[in-house]
Design brief:
single chain; 0% strand; isoprene biosynthesis; 4-hydroxybenzoate polyprenyltransferase activity; transmembrane helix; membrane; UbiA_prenyltransferase
């Protein structure tokens, strides 16, 4: 009976105030306003923003959404003031009851809405004045650091003596170096591509392209990262210092490649896998071409697989702005090409392990890695940005399988 009464009062309210219907469907707005009629309008807005918008972050798009929400409310405040409190409560209770029934039946009206994205750890824990710099270094997206760090870890573990663990200090140094160099590379990329990034949907919110940071601030941050990286480089032997410093030529020139060639992913492979050479040199003080050249080649082929998949996210925008990529070069033959790169990657890793005299656990883990890479290539939907991104991120597991194989194969040798 009670439920029937509140539903009836809700119908009366809708007939009398037809424009009030949207507020009835938003119970937290009603209670936020009805709990304290004497408070200021600003306090109501703050209450609703907290209750209704937990995902409102400090980005420009979030502030825009908050502004739209406030304007929507202001148009309804006078209407709320003119309604009896009991009627407001009844209508809200009715709305909540009906929604509860729909949820029990599996028919919630909001089941097809896009899910709210959780805030990244950068937005949660980094001080607000440092947040643009953390986003510029892509600290909120660690997959790039993993992809840069794995070839370093492979090489350091390859260089370990038979039956021994890899040098843990070197693994830690190269891990920190991967964070810094990846951040520096992203900063260089955003500085050089700022006029392109603001025309591409996925990149237009980046700090420099969106105007959150000026080019001078980006350049200053780049210098800071390189200075920290120099501190790590100076802890290596002389040969490794020269070899490591030479990689900066690749880092600074890579962002320009997409303007001149359809193969920027190959150039990225040369850049991102430099650690396959540097890791061995840091342990042994020289290079063993029989081991490190196949290892470096495997990394380049691997990059051609995952970054071609990644490039398919932006292919429409790339066509509009005139940017080149292997995704555009390969077109509908992409899976054929990346299948060939995948086979070449695994074959090169097998050759490197054979020349390093690793034992059977290496080849067992390499088989698992090959399966993971094959799954990516076979199952990726190149027309779906979301699926391309998922497959791209999954490459951290390919790197982990290979590292596990090298570690176990070295311990068993």
């Amino acid at each position: 009976m009670v439920l029937g009464l509140v539903r009836a009062s809700r119908r009366i309210l809708v007939r009398r105030y037809p424009f009030f219907t949207p507020l009835i469907e938003s119970p937290s707005v009603i209670f936020s306003y009805a709990e304290d009629s004497g408070s200021s309008e600003a306090s109501h807005l703050r209450g609703v923003q907290t209750a209704e918008s937990p995902s409102f972050h400090r980005s420009r798009s979030s502030w825009t959404a908050a502004t739209d929400h406030r304007l929507w409310q202001q148009r309804h405040f006078e209407l709320v003031d003119s309604c009896p409190r009991s009627l407001l409560f009844s209508a809200t209770l009715s709305s909540s009851s009906e929604k509860g029934e729909r949820q029990q039946d599996g028919g919630d009206d909001r089941q097809h809405e896009a899910p709210v994205t959780d805030a990244s750890w950068v937005e949660k824990y980094v001080p607000r004045f440092l947040e643009p710099y953390a986003l510029l270094a892509r600290l909120d997206k660690p997959i790039g650091t993993w992809l840069l760090a794995w070839p370093c870890a492979w090489s350091i573990t390859f260089a370990a003596r038979p039956g021994n663990l890899p040098d843990l200090k070197m693994l830690a140094l190269f891990g920190c170096g991967a964070v810094l160099l990846r951040g520096a590379g992203c900063t260089v990329n955003d500085l050089l591509d700022r006029d392109i990034d603001n025309k591409v949907e996925r990149t237009k919110s980046r700090p420099i392209a969106s105007g959150l940071l000026t080019p001078f601030q980006g350049l200053s941050f780049l210098g800071f990262q390189l200075l920290l990286g120099l501190g790590i480089l100076l802890q290596l032997n002389d040969f490794s210092r020269v070899l490591g410093a030479s990689s900066l030529l690749l880092v600074f020139s890579y962002p320009l490649m997409k303007r001149f060639t359809f193969w920027p992913q190959a150039y990225l492979g040369l850049t991102f896998n430099w650690g396959a050479l540097l890791g061995w040199a840091a342990i042994r003080g020289s290079l063993d071409p029989a081991v490190v050249i196949p290892l470096y080649s495997a990394g380049v082929f691997w990059t051609l697989v995952y970054d071609t998949i990644y490039a398919h996210q932006d292919k429409e925008d790339d066509l509009k702005v005139g940017v080149k990529s292997t995704a555009l070069r390969f077109g509908h033959l992409t899976k054929n090409w990346i299948s060939g790169f995948g086979v070449s990657c695994v074959s090169s890793l097998a050759l490197s392990g054979y020349n390093a005299e690793l034992e059977w656990p290496y080849y067992t883990c390499l088989t698992l890695a090959a399966g993971q890479l094959g799954w990516q290539i076979w199952s990726v939907d190149l027309s779906s940005r979301a699926d391309c991104n998922r497959k791209f991120v999954s490459n951290k597991w390919f790197g982990a399988f290979v590292f596990s194989g090298i570690l176990l194969g070295r311990l068993a040798s």
